[in-house]
Amino acid sequence: ALRRAGPRALEGLLRDYDDAQTVDQATLLLARLTIDGGDPKTAQSHLEHFLAARPTSGAAPEARYLLGLAQLQLGNDHTPVLEDAVAAFGDGDKTRARLLELAKALEDKGDADEAARFLVLAYVASSADQQKELDGRVFALVDRGLSLAATVKLLDDSHLRSSSIYGALLFKQARLLLHVGDVTEAERAVDRYLKEQPDGVFADEARR
């Protein structure tokens, strides 16, 4: 029944009930509804009150995650808080879903570097079929706005070495180096790409 309630009904429950299960569920649902509805300030207020009153609740990890997401929507840089909150969920589909949500929120905010970092974390946590589904999204983000520093940092992730994403990052690095006038390093990056992924997506373009 709680899942069908609107924000006003949930706020009423928080005023009128004090049993732990109702407070936990109502707080998380209200926060999610207000975040998704474009009212992160209301979500932040309820979540801060909840975490101050019930910091050891079983719902606290999700509340911290949602608080970070609300603060991100409000324009604050809370990616370290969000990263810690996601880590608390451990491995599994729930963590992957949160990483994808964060990547989207950061992309909407215009932070391609951080969005790519979380998207790659989701990619690494995905099955082979899920990775194929994410390829296009990762390629687009890498191609559009990734900085040289962020590209180099992602290339250090050993989990990506055999993936098509690694090839996209290598080729992006070459293009960025060429853009800043470092022809020698750009050529080295192209050579590295062709050596590691001779039949890669960008191989024909790299040989031109």
What would a concise description of this structure say?
The chain is mainly alpha-helical and 208 residues long.
Count every beta strand, where a strand is a DSSP E run of 2 or more residues.
0
Percent strand:
under 5%
C-alpha end-to-end distance: 61 Å
What count of helical segments does DSSP give?
Answer: 12
Secondary-structure-based class equals mainly alpha
Can you offer a commentary on this structure?
The protein has 12 helices and no strands. The mean pLDDT is 84. With 208 residues, the chain is mostly helical. The radius of gyration is 21 Å and the shape is elongated. Helix 1 runs antiparallel to helix 2. It starts with 6 loop residues before the first helix and ends with a helix.
